[in-house]
Amino acid sequence: MTASYHRVQGLNNDEVPADWPAISGREIAWLRGRYPQLGSTEEALWHSPRPMSAAAIVEGVAGRLFVKRHHHSVRNAATLGEEHRFIAHLAAAGVPVVQVLRDRDGATAVEHDGWTYELHTLGIGEDLYRDAVSWSPLTDVAQARDAGRMLARLHQAAASYHAPQRGTHLLVARDDLIRSHDPIAALKADLGNRPGLARYLARIPWEEQLRHTVLPWHAGLADRLQAEPRLWAHNDWHVSNLLWQGDTVSTVLDFGLASPTSALFDLATAIERNAVAWLELQRGAQAVRIDIALALLDGYRRQLPLSPARVHLLADLLPVVHLDFALSEVEYFEGITHSTTNADVAWQPFLLGHAQWFGSRDGQALLAGLHAAA
Question: Under a CB-based contact definition with an 8 Å cutoff, are residues 297 and 272 in contact?
């Protein structure tokens, strides 16, 4: 499962061996038999440093293409199709997304030898943040404002898209537990379908830990979220998933975490991803970019107005917006890659630590800034 020669970004902003081997020339040759868009070269031009799948840029007959490969236990063709249909809807509505390529049989995802593959165009624009780690904040206020505007455009287009919930919990950002009046009971009811997560939680006092760290932030949210419409959303709006022309977003990338959540969930996730240097919290106030958070919100509201009540709800969502996804990461590391060490990171500093941080002076300052913007 691990390829020591291929290094990727670790959870602590370090370089670690990849969970999955790099895409090989042999695989590209096989894909060429399925995708006439691929060129004759079998060597990848670039390998992604992202850790939870393998991806590469390869030559195509009409330009370079992006190949992404997933282990079948994480994504099969059916679950990738859920993302691809959403992307196609957004493209038809004028949102600048990458084009998902179809193979010779018209499929947008193909399975082979235990892996699932998808091919995309590269998109238009410069990948300014290609090497940025997932928890590094955005530093340009103008870019933050335009990222907020583009997210609102995406939500406007998504409002007419209707599809069921994702067929997997693995590495998908959902809001099921946040919308539940009793997240612990809801999680317990689902553990029979999630053996990796159940195995991990059986070893720790998880109910007590959630009650003391995360759930105090959840009080009253379920009732307030009843009026918040379900909306298929990107759910991973980090600047590394956007291409740029100057300070303007030119292409939206990577819908791997997409699911029906809500507009406020997606915007709260964008603020969490882009306004806090989660791996550098020791820097104190310097690790928080309240101006970036407010620029994201401002750009969004210029495109799609939000009532004061919804902005207050947005701020109140922030300390718990990561709950479902953090659990999906625990499940992935424990059940798929069998790395209890990484599962511990997903549980402690991510799931519990993020919620705890919002009780700190710096976390409270970020929330206060958003409430004031209402």
Answer: no
SS3 264: helix
- Structural tokens at position 354: 């993020």
Q: pTM above the 0.85 mark? A: yes
Cβ contacts of 5 within 8 Å, gap of 6 or more = 22
Number of domains the chain is built from: 2
Q: What type of residue sits at position 323?
A: L
Assigned domain for 90 exists? yes
Digit-coded pLDDT (tens) for 313-360: 999 999 999 999 999 999 999 999 999 999 999 999 999 999 999 999
CA distances from 156 to 46, 52, 150, 159, 194 (A): 34, 30, 10, 5, 33
CA angle 105, 107, 113 (to 5 degrees): 95
User: Is residue 353 a contact partner of residue 209, using CB atoms and an 8 Å limit?
Assistant: no
CATH code (residue 154): 3.90.1200.10
Residues in contact with 60: Cβ distance below 8 Å, sequence separation at least 6, in sequence order: 37, 38, 39
